[in-house]
Design a protein that fits this description.
177 residues; five-stranded parallel beta sheet; 5 helices; 17% strand
């Protein structure tokens, strides 16, 4: 594809784990228009972002990857960071995440997988060993694992959001995180 030194952040979690809610909290908005101009969020005032508010849970990987490709091509020359979501579905079925990870790894972006271990909906957790199939597909990306249990706790959700924002800030500042 191409090389873009801008980071690509991928919020990873089980379906219904709060990925979309996290996006909305970080960027203080509910609607994202990835084919329009990148926007500058209040939380990262020195960086423009393009947010893709779709996931492989809602769309089959081929359709999701086509959409991501269109958005990336549209903003290829911008200095914007990208953010999208990935449902941790590794069952070999129609919505399996591995082909999306393979596509993202070949995209030329610096990919940071922000794994939300604790679910918003229930007490289900993503154990580190469940990430092995994901790790097997990652060649250049980095996994950031957030193990805070947040089940319907606004306080714990806010704390995890702060942790995720801190990692994003460090990456944007050029940290090795």
């Amino acid at each position: 594809m191409f090389f873009n030194p801008q980071p690509l952040f991928v919020i990873v979690g089980y379906p219904n784990s709060g990925k979309r809610k996290l996006l909305q909290e970080i960027f203080a908005r509910k609607n994202f228009f990835p084919l329009k101009d990148p926007f500058t969020p209040a939380v990262f005032p020195e960086k423009k972002f393009v947010v893709i508010n779709k996931t492989n849970h809602d769309y089959v990987p081929e359709i999701l990857c086509t959409h991501v490709s269109q958005v990336m091509r549209r903003h290829a020359l911008s200095s914007a960071a990208f953010m999208l979501m990935l449902s941790l579905i590794l069952d070999g079925g129609r919505h399996d995440a591995r082909s999306v990870v393979q596509y993202l790894e070949a995209s030329g972006f610096l990919v940071h997988y922000l794994v939300l271990a604790g679910s918003w909906e229930d007490k289900r957790m993503v154990p580190e060993e469940a990430l092995e199939p994901l790790r097997a597909k990652i060649r250049h990306g980095r996994i950031h694992y957030f193990d805070r249990l947040v089940t319907r706790s606004p306080l714990r959700f806010a704390q995890r959001t702060e942790e995720v924002v801190a990692v994003i800030r460090e990456v944007l500042a050029g940290g090795r995180r």
